[in-house]
Amino acid sequence: MQWFHRTIELLTKHFDNVRLRTPITEDEIIGLQFQRSTAAEELKYFYTQTNGLAVGLHDSVVGLIFEFEESQKLLSLISHRDGAYQLLPVRGDGCGDYDCLVIGGGIAEGAVVFYDHEVNEAPSHLLAGSFASYFQLWADYLTTKYQANGEIDQRYVAPKLEAWPWLGEPQRRHPWPFDEAWLKVNDEKAAILLEDAATRSWLNRQNDLT
């Protein structure tokens, strides 16, 4: 599972504060709800290496991947009513919205999608084709947007210069997750899903991003 160790190295080299937690064992995972899904193997590996992860950012919510127990609690809150699929939250925005792994069968199983609590009949848009890809894209986004001390890099934020609007463009950008063309190039599984008509119709706002 090189993706995990490579991403942890990226985060720990860039940020002053990255907190890994005591991992849980496979025995502790067996029998719990998301164990039934073969799509969860990458996430299961993550939890057997660290039970959640916290990157020390000024906005602490952005840098937090849930502990296993928290994911399980949230699972029952947002699982789809007809049982065709389930969404396992792995990260939240503090406003009731979650990045979720699709488990339990159905469309886009194994992908990570954004669940918007205001559009709860279906996920809003695709974040990654797998948890491994999501973890790497998320880390790359953080190391682009934030400085080592957890503050937003001011080159990322467009300065407010109304008199000279052409100077208001940020020097640093990151295309994830809303640049679909970029996502297709950088995530092979996501590219396949984004060409699938059933997946696109299931994702509530995906077509608004193109």
Write structural notes for this entry.
- The protein is α+β, with helices and mostly antiparallel strands and 210 residues long.
- It has a single domain, classed as SMI1/KNR4-like.
- Helices cover 34% and strands 14% of the residues.
- Strand 4 and strand 5 form a beta hairpin.
- Helix 6 crosses helix 7.
- The two termini are 33 Å apart.
- This is SMI1 / KNR4 family protein.
Class based on secondary structure composition and strand pairing: alpha+beta
Largest sheet: 4 strands, antiparallel
Named at the architecture level, the CATH assignment is: 3-Layer(aba) Sandwich
Indicate the proportion of strand residues: 5-15%
Q: From the alpha carbons, calculate the radius of gyration and give it in angstroms.
A: 18 Å
Question: What is the CATH domain class?
Answer: Alpha Beta
**What order do the strands of the largest sheet run in, or round the barrel if closed?**
4-5-6-7
CATH evolutionary superfamily: SMI1/KNR4-like
User: What is the domain total for the residues?
Assistant: 1
